[in-house]
């Protein structure tokens, strides 16, 4: 699974004029299930993100996790994280999981974060979404479970 994680002061997602999720301080997580991914990758990624120390401590160092600060997560599906830009000018997305599996793992990942005690809001899988955020830092981190294989 691939995730682009942004430390935010606030974030929200709208679908067709209605808000489907909103958080205050925490993480905006753009997530993509890749072909061959399983619930095991979703569990590992959720655990790593919950412990990722990218929030400032009293000394101003990035030493605290979203769990430590009592933050929340806004999880938004984004199959374009699977973009292959190695040839031509139009990215290919064939390495992304098929939509049914992608949605299953997206929902599972959100549940895994909740099971770790984090408040989780969501976008809407497969929808055309408008995501707004106030990036704090800015801090943006890329994670891919394939990198740890």
Structure overview:
By secondary structure, the chain is α/β, with parallel strands linked by helices. It has one domain (2-88, 97-148): 3-Layer(bba) Sandwich (D-tyrosyl-trna(Tyr) Deacylase, Chain: A). Helices cover 23% and strands 38% of the residues. It is built from 3 helices and 8 strands, in the order βββαββαβαββ. The strands form 2 sheets. Strands 1, 2, 3, 6, 7 and 8 form a 6-stranded mixed β-sheet that branches. A two-stranded antiparallel sheet has the order 4-5. β1 (2-15) and β2 (18-23) form a beta hairpin. The protein is globular, with a radius of gyration of 15 Å. The chain starts with a strand and ends in a 5-residue tail after the last strand. The mean pLDDT is 96.
Short description:
It contains 3 helices and 8 strands; from the N terminus they run E-E-E-H-E-E-H-E-H-E-E. With 149 residues, it is α/β, with parallel strands linked by helices. It has one domain (2-88, 97-148): 3-Layer(bba) Sandwich (D-tyrosyl-trna(Tyr) Deacylase, Chain: A).
Quick tags:
alpha/beta; D-tyrosyl-trna(Tyr) Deacylase, Chain: A; 149 residues; 3 helices
Q: What would the CATH topology be?
A: D-tyrosyl-trna(Tyr) Deacylase, Chain: A
Helical proportion, percent range: 10-25%
User: What is the domain total for the residues?
Assistant: 1
Count of helical stretches: 3
Described by the principal axes of the CA atoms, the overall outline is: globular
Corresponding CATH superfamily: D-tyrosyl-tRNA(Tyr) deacylase
Euclidean distance between termini CA atoms? 11 Å
Integer-rounded radius of gyration? 15 Å
Average residue pLDDT: 96
State the CATH architecture: 3-Layer(bba) Sandwich
Q: Strand-residue fraction?
A: 35-45%
Which segments are poorly predicted (pLDDT under 50) over 5 or more consecutive residues? none
**Largest beta-sheet details:** 6 strands, mixed
Broad CATH class: Alpha Beta
Strand runs, count: 8
Note the run of SSEs as H and E: EEEHEEHEHEE
Helical/strand content category: alpha/beta
């Amino acid at each position: 699974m691939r995730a682009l994680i942004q430390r935010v002061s606030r974030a929200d997602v709208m679908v067709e004029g209605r808000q489907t999720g909103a958080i205050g301080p925490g993480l905006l997580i753009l997530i993509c299930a890749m072909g061959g991914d399983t619930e095991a990758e979703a569990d590992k990624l959720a655990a790593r993100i919950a412990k990722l120390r990218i929030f400032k401590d009293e000394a101003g160092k990035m030493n605290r996790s979203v769990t430590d600060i009592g933050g929340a997560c806004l999880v938004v599906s984004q199959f374009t994280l699977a973009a292959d830009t190695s040839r031509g000018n139009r990215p290919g997305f064939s390495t992304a999981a098929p939509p049914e599996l992608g949605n299953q793992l997206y929902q599972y990942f959100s549940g895994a974060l909740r099971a770790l005690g984090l408040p989780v809001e969501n976008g809407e899988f497969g929808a055309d979404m408008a995501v707004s955020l106030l990036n704090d830092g800015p801090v943006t981190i890329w994670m891919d479970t394939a990198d740890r294989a």
